[in-house]
Amino acid sequence: MVAAAGAGGDVGLQPRVVSGGRVGLETRADLAVHGVRMTAPVSRRAGAGPSDDGHVVLAGRGVALPIVPTSRYEVAGGRLLFDGTDLGVPVEPVRRPRFYDLRTADGIPYEKIARLHGRDVLATTVLQTCVRYQEPDRCRFCAVEESLRAGATIRLKTPEQLAEVAEAAVRLDGVRQMVLTTGSTAAPDRGARLLVPVVRAVLDAVPGLPIQVQCEPPADLAAIGELWAAGATAIGIHVESLDDAVRARWTPGKATVPLARYEEAWAEAVRVFGRNRVSTYLLVGLGEDPDELVAGAERLIGMGVYPFVVPFRPLAGTLATERDGAVAPDPAVVADVTRRVAAALRAAGMRGGDQGAGCAACGACSALPEAGG
């Protein structure tokens, strides 16, 4: 693994601000790896995706940043500071959404059903358990069941609950898109069909709300068409790495699904949803050669799949952190990979914002928007 000094340690890249108070790619990569010191009204700990973070509006864009008490970066007085020096970048924590104050008729707080991500994305894990969560199959960077054990969420969210929360989040807090993911199941659809009635219910309550669904490649590819027919805008089928050795180490359960099966699912998803309405996570820092990672991303782009490049983050409650002692990647590597992938995306005419909904459309967890992707 390409390692850095660790979160909060020496910053590998000099902070750079471009004209207009925007953050340069190098600084954005540094922030993604080393995090910031701040108080964040909207934050998230543990879960199925990037967490242990705070949500801010950084230079006008919604961003999720790791909260690291020892970081040399700090958010204070509406500005981004580095070692106490004002970098000239406006930043404000996202305010606590009003829908968090509401409860369902049976007393469940809305924030246990769905959470605000970035500044205007509503996200939820419909099924908060995963058939792969027990060792030896568990993905080493995942904490999907830890938030359930902590009482921060409920195991299974119903279509009716999610429709109710989505309507309130749009009406009260200006939410503009929604992300529905799920822990994997042992069923042939891997849990994808759990999302179908949710999409329908949410769109009945909030017509026109862009929704991204996320799932493993279903053994029955017809499930992809069912998600589209229900009204989903985009789909994420996340592989994390295109290197089989890396997959075997980091995602041992998912690695039993061959890459060829992912390629079949991506191809079907592009056929159904369209080019640049399909995405996959690629994590920088799992040990994959950066040049091979970029080459793999370029192949995905050629298929019409958006490679959402994000640095690996050591999160609380994961095997990578609790047992492996894994550390975040070198920010310089993150910036280099991100820059090259963004260039390939621009050449192909693919922008994350054009996905309509989902991680690429939001962009809060990646430096791709700063690189023009």
Description:
The protein is α/β, with parallel strands linked by helices. The chain has one domain (95-371): Alpha-Beta Barrel (TIM Barrel), CATH 3.20.20. The protein is 29% helix and 18% strand. The chain contains eleven helices and 15 strands. The protein has helices at 25-34, 146-149, 159-173, 195-205, 222-230, 244-250, 259-273, 290-303, 319-322, 331-347, 359-362, and strands at residues 17-18, 22-23, 43-44, 53-58, 61-66, 73-76, 79-82, 85-93, 115-117, 121-125, 177-181, 211-214, 234-236, 278-284, 305-311. It has a seven-stranded mixed beta sheet with strand order 9-10-11-12-13-14-15. Strands 3, 4, 5, 6, 7 and 8 form a six-stranded antiparallel beta sheet that branches. Helix 1 packs across helix 10, helix 3 (159-173) packs across helix 4 and helix 8 (290-303) runs parallel beside helix 10 (331-347). The protein is globular. The protein starts with 16 loop residues before the first strand and ends in an 11-residue tail after the last helix.
Q: Work out the helix count.
A: 11
Provide the β-strand percentage band: 15-25%
Q: State the order of secondary-structure elements, H for helix, E for strand.
A: EEHEEEEEEEEHHEHEHEHHEHEHHH
The residue ranges in which pLDDT falls below 50 over 5 or more consecutive positions are 1-12
Q: Specify Rg, calculated over alpha carbons.
A: 19 Å
Output the strand order for the largest sheet. Answer: 9-10-11-12-13-14-15
Total count of domains:
1
Instruction: Tell me the total number of β-strands.
Output: 15
